[in-house]
Design goal:
With 89 residues, this protein is mostly helical. It is built from five helices and no strands. Helices cover 51% and strands 0% of the residues. The protein starts with a helix and ends with a helix.
Length: 89
């Protein structure tokens, strides 16, 4: 690439540098971005999350999110994912 010197004037992420060195289009479908996609919430999971929230929101002295995570049937959800989904709902 004869114009690579122009690209070197701007800050690059590691993924962009890899794409420059290996050829444009070498990163397919967000590969190499360093972040895996979060699986989407199914309607059944959303309903279960609502039910668990209403069940544990009134409990005094207990962390609501911790209680939800302990009883959530879908394993692998993080605290941040649960909080973000509750805010969205």
């Amino acid at each position: 690439n004869k114009k690579v010197f122009v690209e070197l004037l701007f800050w690059k992420s590691p993924a962009a540098v890899r794409e420059m060195t290996e050829g444009y289009g070498s990163l397919q479908g967000g590969e190499g971005t360093g972040r895996s996609r979060v699986p989407p919430w199914t309607p059944q999971e959303e309903q279960e999350l609502r039910d668990l929230y209403w069940k544990y929101k009134e409990v005094e002295g207990e962390d609501v999110i911790a209680a939800i995570l302990a009883h959530l049937p879908a394993p692998g959800r993080t605290r941040r994912q649960v909080v973000k989904q509750l805010v969205r709902l």
